[in-house]
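Example 3.
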Amino acid sequence: MSRLRVHSFAISLDGYGAGPDQTIDHPLGVRGEELHEWIFETRFWSEMTGEPGGKEGVDHDFLVAGFTGIGAWIMGRNMFGPVRGEWGDSDWRGWWGDNPPYHQSVFVLTHHPHDPIAMDGGTTFHFITDGIESALEQATAAAGGADIRLGGGVATIQEYLRAGLVDDLHVAIVPRLLGDGERLFDRLGEAVDGYECAELVASDAVVHLRMVPKR
Amino acid sequence: MSRLRVHSFAISLDGYGAGPDQTIDHPLGVRGEELHEWIFETRFWSEMTGEPGGKEGVDHDFLVAGFTGIGAWIMGRNMFGPVRGEWGDSDWRGWWGDNPPYHQSVFVLTHHPHDPIAMDGGTTFHFITDGIESALEQATAAAGGADIRLGGGVATIQEYLRAGLVDDLHVAIVPRLLGDGERLFDRLGEAVDGYECAELVASDAVVHLRMVPKR
């Protein structure tokens, strides 16, 4: 059965998965980029960007795991782009250029209908307006037996957590204080009682922690 | 110069240093005791309680470090006891029995005057009503050149952090979700910009993380 997995979702020591005031210049909000610096050091990142170098090790391994066995993606609209409200005549096609790193179907949660966008390299963005369960059903069908990766942002992950639909939640705690932003582990209601720690390991940059449903 | 140090302060994955609804039966609030289970497994705890056994290792080492080079303690009133408001005719003498584990002067922050309480084993509780700077001055004098350990609770540590007076902050992140309580890294204002990570290491139970003032 397909599992819904969150990987390498970075949060600050004070719990923020994104800084405040997301804009086109700051897709992760003010200071939100600091949450991703550990990624840029890895061989995973070098390979993705075609740059030489990059470190192997725990951080690299976790990043690779997040792309292993995945057949479709789900993400919130804010992870797709900075447009809010109606799409209008926006020609926004995601943050990732012509050839996004997904190479499969990506289901974008939105309240506003939008035609699918086929990109180079096999990525197609589908826009889902009838809720998280529907998105999961469609992603499951598209994944063909593989798992589904749930991207961000914070609000999207919280929705799936509250619904008890997340099968594996890997966060990377970045040892910095942001002071403001969107907290991941917040407003989860009774979902907090449903998860337990399955893995805990620190690199020299971040703490990797996996939460899974209690058996 | 004496340094003000926080040690082994446990917070949950969702950031809570204590659960909600502190009472005499739940000094750390509902579910707050879960934050301390990692301590009970250590040789440090065995030695303190006179029980046999207990594990050595990272957790043990961090707990020992918290009692090394310390000449006085400061703590908030809620860490001292469950009494609120005026002391009245309360004969409360702390959570720790006749022989508390401090064996030195402990300065308790309160808005309500109380005579000092001398306990067995060298611990004396002094009650400080004129603020955190005064408590720090008196603790520094009592420490005779050694460092001062700052206990809890959350509100007390936040006060000293906001004032920029904490020289070393060691937290242990417990990989559990409490869902409610008092968040440590919250309402810190500009203090969040003043600290950086000095140490990051995981045991099989918790993550140890030390924050120190930026140089």
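Residues 132-143 of chain B form the longest helix (12 residues). The interface with chain A takes residues 13-15, 173, 175-179, 183, 185-186, 188-190, 192-193, 195-197, 200-202, 204-207, 209, 211 of chain B (CB under 8 Å).
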